[in-house]
Amino acid sequence: MNSGSRAMIFFSKYILKWYSSHQRNLPWRQNPTPYHVLISEIMLQQTQVPRVIEKFREFTTKFLTIFDLAKASPADVIQSWSGLGYNRRALLLHKFAQEVVDKYNGIIPDSAAELVKLPGIGPYTAGAIASFAYNQPEPAIDVNIRRIYQRHFHGKDQGLPMGKKEEDKLYELVKSTIPENRSAQFHNALMDFGSLVCTRDAPLCVQCPL
Questions:
Q1: Is the Cα dihedral 188, 118, 27, 194 positive or negative?
Q2: DSSP of the chain, one letter per residue?
Q3: Which of 25, 74, 141, 156 is most buried, by the most CB atoms less than 10 A from its CB?
Q4: Which residues of the chain have pLDDT under 50?
Q5: Mind listing the pLDDT tens digit for each residue in 40-91?
Q6: Could you tell me if 157 and 151 are in contact, meaning their C-beta atoms sit under 8 angstroms apart?
Q7: Which residues are designated catalytic?
């Protein structure tokens, strides 16, 4: 085993060890169905976690399944979305539900390559659904995860926007650190670590297990 492989195993091991004692209790993690993961990921775009917790419960109580969401009117979906802002997200979520019902019989695809073709789904959200809902070893790279890897493996902060070549290298790096059969848990650990320890402005470096 070379030093690079050891470094990646070390990274994954200690992130998961930290997570075992510090994980957040979030409602979409209690029953991580593809539908619940989808709703939470769309809501979390540009909205803080405490606000999403409240609205997630309301929304998934009103629209119990993707079939309920698909058959709802756009006006009803927007009304239920009230308080989260950026109503375009709600409309795209509605279109996503309708397309999944029409094309996939209500079964959300487990492939990031298929997911990204659907309304409102970008590379991150596709990776998140594949990883969180289906435990696929598919990187879901948001700003928090990018920051963690940049700091740990490259010794630098976010810096300037990354080009395609750099993004591709980051994708391969993240993929190489995902433990076998633990993608969902590992990504949850990264999300919590980025939110609680490796924060953007005031990282708690003295508490960092790495």
A1: positive
A2: --HHHHHHHHHHHHHHHHHHHH----HHHHS--HHHHHHHHHHHTTS-HHHHHHHHHHHHHHS-SHHHHHHS-HHHHHHHHTTS--HHHHHHHHHHHHHHHHHHTT---S-HHHHTTSTT--HHHHHHIIIIIT--S-----HHHHHHHHHHHHS--S-SPP-HHHHHHHHHHHHHHSPTT-HHHHHHHHHHHHHHTS-SSS--GGG---
A3: 141
A4: none
A5: 999 999 899 999 999 999 999 999 999 999 999 999 999 999 999 889 999 9
A6: yes
A7: 41
